[in-house]
Amino acid sequence: MLKESIPRWFKSTYSGGSGTECVEYAPVCEGTLVRDSKQPDAARLTVGGAAWAGFIGAVRTGQLG
Question: According to DSSP H, which parts of the chain are helical?
Fold first, then answer.
């Protein structure tokens, strides 16, 4: 986990290629921040570490699609 005071944002590889559905995430001490890349200053969602790992696991195995 990154422990920086300023989050380092990454674009999700699952975001669509059309540029209309871009999700970014940033690992932080508390878990992971999630935001809409088109509105980077808008509200952010903080997801705990265990919940984020479960979400990523479900995405990778196709359980959410």
Answer: 49-60
